[in-house]
Amino acid sequence: MKRRVVVTGIGCVTPIGISYDEVKDAMFSGRSGIRYYENIKANLGRVEFDIDSQIAPIDQTITDRISRFAWYSYLKCKEDAGITKEDVDGIFFGVGFCGSYTIENSFPEYLNNGRSRPNTLVNICPNSPACFIAFRDIVTGK
Questions:
Q1: How far is C-alpha 93 from the geometric centre of its chain's CA atoms?
Q2: What is the largest CA-CA distance in the chain?
Q3: Engineering a disulfide at 129: which of 6, 48, 70, 134 sits with its beta carbon 3.0 to 4.6 angstroms away?
Q4: In angstroms, rounded to a whole number, what is the distance separating the alpha carbons of residues 44 and 67?
Q5: Contact of 76 with 46, CB cutoff 8 Å
């Protein structure tokens, strides 16, 4: 049985903007999100948005930066669509790479203490953003 999927809302967290209008304007004007970072001598597309100001402190301790961005974009998507959690049947979220922030911050802790945080492995899994969204919104309703 085929089921149709209809995108009814858009939520963005990108190096060129955190709203559909910002991203659209940047794309149509040819503005790139790639910047040169002198401290690491590399060109990167990095999201400069302060996501931690938008996320509960407890969620900051249990998630990777990518999962926090996913949560924020999910909330903006629901807001754009005008839907509630009762309207959501499931979560699909795709990432190319997840957990770099966790790996970067866990490595010094591992070198200094000989151990990593207990949630390190969970945070670097590619399904971590979708799991966090599903748990946070669908299971706990918060």
A1: 9
A2: 54
A3: 70
A4: 19
A5: no
Residue 135 near residue 128 (C-beta atoms within 8 A): no
Please report, as a single letter, which amino acid is at residue 38: E
Q: What is the pTM assigned to this prediction?
A: 0.78
Residues 77-108 have pLDDT tens digits of: 889 988 887 777 767 776 666 667 777 777 77
| Percentage of the chain lying above the pLDDT 70 cut | 89
Token pair belonging to 10: 């858009």
Q: Which tokens sit at 54?
A: 């938008």
CA distance 121 to 47: 23
CA distance 64 to 82: 27
